[in-house]
Automatic annotation (TrEMBL), chain A:
Top-level taxon: Eukaryota
Family: Belongs to the purine/pyrimidine phosphoribosyltransferase family.
Reactions this protein catalyses: AMP + diphosphate = 5-phospho-alpha-D-ribose 1-diphosphate + adenine
Pathway terms, separated by semicolons: Purine metabolism; AMP biosynthesis via salvage pathway; AMP from adenine: step 1/1
Organism per entry: Cicer arietinum
Biological process according to GO: adenine salvage; AMP salvage; purine ribonucleoside salvage
Name used for this protein in its record: adenine phosphoribosyltransferase
Compartmental location: Cytoplasm
InterPro entries, per the entry: Ade_phspho_trans, Adenine_PRTase, PRTase-like, PRTase_dom
Subunit annotation: Homodimer.
Gene: LOC101496925
From TrEMBL, chain B:
The protein's annotated pathway: Purine metabolism; AMP biosynthesis via salvage pathway; AMP from adenine: step 1/1
Name this polypeptide is given: adenine phosphoribosyltransferase
One GO CC term on file: cytosol
PANTHER family xrefs: ADENINE PHOSPHORIBOSYLTRANSFERASE (PTHR11776), ADENINE PHOSPHORIBOSYLTRANSFERASE 1, CHLOROPLASTIC (PTHR11776:SF0)
Subunit structure: Homodimer.
Reactions the enzyme catalyzes: AMP + diphosphate = 5-phospho-alpha-D-ribose 1-diphosphate + adenine
Gene3D superfamilies recorded: 3.40.50.2020
Gene behind this protein: LOC101502360
UniProt keyword annotation of Chloroplast present: no
GO molecular function annotations of the record: adenine phosphoribosyltransferase activity
Amino acid sequence: MSAYTHQDPRLHGIKTKIRVVPNFPKSGIMFQDITTLLLDPKAFKDTIDLFVERYKGKNISVVAGIEARGFIFGPPIALAIGAKFVPLRKPKKLPGKVISQEYILEYGRDCLEMHVGAVETGDRAIVVDDLIATGGTLCAAMDLLERVGAEVVECACVIELPELKGRERLNGKPLYVLVEYFEI
Amino acid sequence: MQSSSSRLLLCSSKPNSLFGSAVTPTLPSSLRFPPLSLTIPNSTSSSIRLRSLRSSEMASQDQDPRIARISSAIRVIPDFPKPGIMFQDITTLLLDTKAFKDTIDLFVERYRDQNISVVAGVEARGFIFGPPIALAIGAKFVPMRKPKKLPGEVISEEYSLEYGTDKIEMHVGAVQPGERALVIDDLIATGGTLCAAIKLLERVEVTVVECACVIELPELKGRERLGDRSLFVLVEAEGA
């Protein structure tokens, strides 16, 4: 589901603050730039509030954020709902013992890592990123959490690109987004 | 969590003890929390100076009781990313909901009435601490990133590493001349990255009010590299 379908009055302000940059990082891609949202303190606060209102009081013990833009949205949510923040990172960034999950890209593979011991069996987690496209990274994030016995309650993103069918790739796991962007 | 005997707990002469220490470590005068002292100018931003944290006229204060828990929550990983380096891992701090909240609160309490309109955070761990501070004080958050990550027009600043150079970028138009900014990162070591971040902001006529980090490695002299720009940290540690 998306908050937009319920038309919370804050959503219009959020959507208009997201800047679309054509042909980045390569030709043909319309890049959804959330940095302009971060320049508007009210719109940024509204973004966080919408997630916090949804997850507060639901016994969420872990907010996992995907490097690097998930690090911007995840911690404020975690702090407000009283959950741990767990960074999910590209390889070799986290010191100490990690577990890794590989995932497929359009061309090639990538890998996401999480600290051993950060998340425990029985933790209830949400995964946060700025955007869901094909869903590959979110799937890898969910795999990491489920491998250590956490329950992934929902994935939460500011933006969804529905045409890339990321929602279907999540294997039935709920996805909550604030805005959808359609190219056509 | 490791109790690291090599870590200085805000200049206590006793080793940092996780268990059973009844003594509150005291701060040297240079690290007690002085109020931000503004010389109130009518002129432009470049003339605003904060009283240096090193000023010996600082009134003595006891260490804030939240600091001990914050310091204990930071994990030290030896020999990462290479032999001889004692890596200060803040991810364990983020797992302690009270300590993480206290960390943010300490910065927010310091900056909320200082008319800060910009919090600039250095990729990637500055992205964890910067936004909560920005949200609480009503400022914009501006990410400072490695090359080619920010879409659209950027300005870049190169800086030296031990071997070679690196670059940090900021969006054109993110900040306006005359704005008052903080620069946030998890840790200051040599100060190279922070200096580059400051330069980017000053090039577009922003006043950098202060740099704020959770951890400082004083032996690496980052504070000196910042010159007369203010630095505020919560915890000091040994780098190697």
